[in-house]
Design brief:
The complex is a heterodimer of chains A (about 290) and B (about 425). Chain A contains eleven helices and two strands, in the order ααααββααααααα. Chain A has one domain: ABC transporter involved in vitamin B12 uptake, BtuC. The radius of gyration of chain A is 19 Å and the shape is globular. Chain A is mainly alpha-helical. Chain A has a two-stranded antiparallel sheet with strand order 1-2. Chain B folds into two domains: about 190 residues, 3-Layer(aba) Sandwich (Rossmann fold), CATH 3.40.50; about 140 residues, Response regulator (Rossmann fold, 3-Layer(aba) Sandwich). The longest helix of chain B is centred in the first third of the chain and has 31 residues. The radius of gyration of chain B is 28 Å and the shape is globular. The chains are: A mainly alpha (about 290), B alpha/beta (about 425). Chains A and B meet through helix 1, helix 4, helix 5 and helix 10 of A and helix 2, strand 7, helix 8, helix 9 and helix 10 of B.
């Protein structure tokens, strides 16, 4: 019983981490159709900012998050400014442009921060430890669960319960129709990048704390974001968290019963099966987009 | 009426055929100039300041990508060795030029870079390389084109034992890690049950199998041997299995970043283990400073570190540390020393050939490497018939008060803490 609970906690925390990394990508891609291959590098930049604030300035880990929340939307808006110059076909060209940008950012980070692996807040504190049962929930697992739930809830409230959210959803669902209905889709693009930047600002420090950061690590973050976004369906915030949890739990279960080397294979099989059975994502019906 | 002016002929009056010849001659002279410039550049590139022909040394390392940290460390060691030789006047007065290439932590790029170094740069020999997946393709190429390659960090036994490759040498070997570690686990830790985690790389996989065999021979059970992908994000489920298996020692064959996550999660889960031993990744000052208190009591392995040197090489080791600090403004580590040792081996073999006025051909250099015997800070270096180093032995170190203390073998031990302190205490 407690062993199952421990696997649930491990898988849930890992899935929350995946969802947190994917949230910003999903929102930006949904609204602007910009296939941002430099997304992971932006998460790393946010992670490096948090790392140096924590390491050099002595800021507590949770104190670094507000600074990243202020800085990263600016960086995301600069990216939007850069992508506005990309000609049509926008999806393909944005992919090529951001691939180049990712390479530039990787080399820039290598020059600025060296190739060393960095880890934020390595001190170990169990959040909950029940010696009689053997159940342990670490503070990092608790932080990941809390932050991913909070971020998903806030994005959901924004999209479902505000006028601005309705406009953003309309742009995600049918860009041309939204434009005909009088929605300024260009402004929606700016807003999506700003909100995406906020989510990157949150995901970066959590990434640096959960994983380690190094200049070439952005590729992995981008892959996580793309996989979970495809898994959940573009622009679906709640199913993004659900998808993250499913992948996390599948990986934890595979590691437990099959072995650590099977984790990636099991999550890949899960993704392929889902794409065959439900091509529009986890929570969506084909042809009926409901973010 | 047109006035004839023999001194000032109009353009019209130039015969067409002459114009064509002129253009042709200009083209020819332009081409000749370009060829001349290229020749001068090529000639200047192969001749040093003193007019002596430059000896070219090739180096391939993962300078970017996921292995960049260790690739950069090896690169610094190689650069330092070459600069040291050049500062002493080169090899028989001939300067050494290092041609460095980045394999981006990808085997196919390593292969392309090696081809470029062999065919275009005409290098005398190759050094560098981190992990067998990057070293193996380059070693094959070295054999095919008879260019000696001294790998800085390679362990897979098949590379030297499965097929004889007279052009492949390396400064590390698996037995030099597994043998002292097995003895340490048996004699010092007095373990009964051991769990082994390894990465899906050839070297780490062979390490795990070899360690399990050695431990089984002395009656130590290995109830859990698990493989995982390098760069795993979560080890909590694996640690749960470690707990269920009831082991007293955990050996991690993971790399530096894997151990960062594993050690932290082990501490967080308060898993009752007598010790966690990790041959790779722990014996680094940067690892200790990154993990802080969580690194206390951890056991790692290294072939060299500042203050931990091959007996009798203390002065040379000290000189290296001081020179390295001056050159790069940072501390060298065991990986740096692997790069330095591999480059020194190749440079010493080249120097021996040059002193005998022998041509610096691949077969001659391979023979010189085979006969080489030298005591360096990391090891007493002599290659066996397969190209493996005969006397390579790592020591077991324990992190005590933020410092690495040698705890095994007994003749080199400086201290010992019986168990890893619990952070909960």
């Amino acid at each position: 019983m407690w062993r199952w609970t421990q696997i649930l906690v491990a898988g849930g925390a890992l899935g929350s981490f995946y969802a947190l990394v994917a949230l910003g990508f999903s929102l930006i891609f949904g609204v602007t159709h910009a296939f941002n291959l430099a997304y992971g590098e932006f998460i790393l930049l946010s992670g490096y900012l948090a790392y140096f604030l924590w390491k050099s300035w002595g800021l507590p880990f949770y104190g670094t998050i507000p600074v990243c929340l202020v800085v990263m939307p600016g960086a995301a808006l600069l990216l939007h400014l850069f992508l506005r110059r990309v000609r049509s076909p926008f999806e393909i060209n944005s992919l090529v442009a951001t691939f180049g940008l990712a390479l530039v950012l990787q080399n820039l980070m290598l020059a600025l921060f060296s190739a060393d692996y960095r880890l934020i807040q390595p001190e170990a504190f169990p959040f909950l430890h029940l010696p009689a049962t053997g159940l342990t929930i670490t503070d990092k697992q608790f932080g990941l669960l809390t932050f991913s739930l909070a971020a998903t809830l806030l994005v959901h409230l924004l999209l479902r319960h505000t006028f601005l959210g309705k406009a953003l959803r309309a742009t995600i669902q049918e860009r041309e129709a939204a434009e005909l209905a009088g929605i300024n889709v260009n402004r929606m693009g700016w807003l999506a990048f700003a909100f995406g930047g906020l989510l990157i600002g949150l995901a970066g420090p959590m990434y640096g704390q959960t994983m380690y950061i190094y200049p070439a690590g952005g590729v992995e973050a981008t892959l996580i974001a793309i996989t979970i976004t495809i898994f959940a369906g573009v622009g679906r915030t709640r199913s993004l968290l659900l998808g993250g949890w499913l992948v996390g739990l599948a990986e934890a279960a595979a590691a437990m019963w099959l072995g650590g080397s099977w984790k990636e294979l099991v999550s890949a099989l899960l993704l392929i099966t889902l794409l065959v059975v439900r091509p529009s994502g986890l929570a969506g019906r084909d042809g009926n987009h409901k973010p | 009426m047109e006035i004839a002016n023999p001194g000032c002929r109009s353009a019209k009056s130039w015969p067409r055929v002459n114009s064509g010849r002129l253009q042709l001659s200009f083209r020819r002279s332009g081409l000749l100039q370009i060829i001349l410039v290229l020749f001068v550049i090529m000639f200047a590139g192969s001749v040093g300041a003193g007019g002596k022909e430059v000896i070219r040394l090739g180096e391939i390392n993962p300078l970017t990508g996921h292995l960049a940290q260790h690739g950069q460390e090896i690169h610094q060691g190689v650069v330092y060795a070459v600069e040291e030789v050049n500062a002493q006047g080169g090899i028989q007065g001939r300067p050494v030029k290092l041609c460095s290439r980045d394999d981006q932590s990808r085997p196919e790029i390593a292969l392309n870079q090696a081809q470029e170094l062999i065919f275009r740069e005409k290098i005398a020999g190759l050094v560098g390389g981190y992990v067998d997946s990057l070293v193996a393709p380059v070693s094959e190429l070295a054999a095919r084109y008879q260019v000696p390659y001294v790998a800085s960090a390679s362990l897979q036994q098949a590379l030297t034992r499965q097929r004889r490759n007279p052009y492949f040498f390396r400064v590390s070997r698996l037995d030099g890690i597994v043998e002292p570690l097995s003895r340490f686990i048996d004699e010092k830790l007095k373990a009964r049950r051991v769990a082994i985690l390894h990465i899906a790389t050839p070297g780490s996989t062979e390490f795990a199998a070899s360690l399990r065999d050695n431990l089984s021979k002395v009656g130590i059970a290995v109830p859990l041997l698990e493989k995982c992908r390098a760069g795993s994000r979560d080890f909590s489920t694996f640690l749960l299995k470690v707990k269920q298996a009831g082991v007293d020692i955990l050996v991690s064959g993971g790399f530096y970043p894997d151990n960062l996550i594993l050690v932290r999660q082990w501490r967080e889960m308060r898993l009752p283990l007598k010790a966690l031993v990790a041959p790779w990744g722990v014996a680094y000052q940067s690892f200790i400073s990154t993990l802080g208190r969580a690194s206390e009591g951890l056991l790692g392995m290294c072939a060299w570190n500042p203050g931990i040197t091959w007996p009798g090489t203390e002065a040379a080791s000290c000189r290296f540390v001081q020179g390295f600090r001056q050159r790069f403004g940072q501390e060298p580590n065991t990986t740096t020393m692997h790069g330095y040792t591999s480059a020194r081996a190749l440079l010493l073999a080249l120097a021996q050939l040059a002193s005998r006025a022998e041509p610096l051909t691949g077969p001659a250099l391979s023979q010189a490497l085979r006969k080489l015997e030298v005591v360096l800070p990391m090891e007493h270096l002599k290659f066996d018939e397969y190209g493996d180093p005969l006397y390579y032995r790592q020591v077991v170190v324990q992190i005590q008060q933020g410092r690495m203390v040698v705890v095994y073998p007994p003749e080199r031990a400086k201290g010992w803490l019986p168990t890893a302190p619990s952070l909960a205490e």
